[in-house]
Amino acid sequence: MKDQVNDRTDKYGGSLENRYRFSLEIVEAVVNEIGVDKVGMRVSPYASYMEASESNPEALGVYMVNIVNKFGILYLHIIEPRMIKINDKYETPHSLLPMRNAFKGTFIAVGGYNVDNGNKAITNNYSDLVAFGMLFLANLDLPR
């Protein structure tokens, strides 16, 4: 999907619509097979792992949200723009709010959260849920 690595010249390359086409086809096929009430999606429009960056990640994120809204998927699990790689986070002017505001289902934010700022994100309506993947890997008793 990212314009820095997608150099295709067919119907899956070039414009944002074309670059997102394959993901859309997968979502549509899964929804048709198992039902929309069982489908969620995890996306990372800001991530640049392996030099796979996007020149306009906010536009990509909002576009993705608007497309999956048409299907009514159950949730969107999205990685914070402040995350570069595991254990590295940085300050950024970017935010998930444009995607949060556009998405109609359950919005799950992930990336660099602890209990305090995770609770704050929910209280401030930044997210419906917050994921704590790495914390659970280190401490299976985290909820206690």
TrEMBL record:
Pfam families: Oxidored_FMN. Signal peptide: none annotated. It comes from Gossypium stocksii. Residues 3-143 form the NADH:flavin oxidoreductase/NADH oxidase N-terminal domain. Belongs to the NADH:flavin oxidoreductase/NADH oxidase family. Its cofactor is FMN. This is NADH:flavin oxidoreductase/NADH oxidase N-terminal domain-containing protein. One of its GO terms (molecular function) is FMN binding. It comes from the Eukaryota. InterPro entries: Aldolase_TIM, OxRdtase_FMN_N, Oye-like. Keywords: Flavoprotein, FMN, NADP.
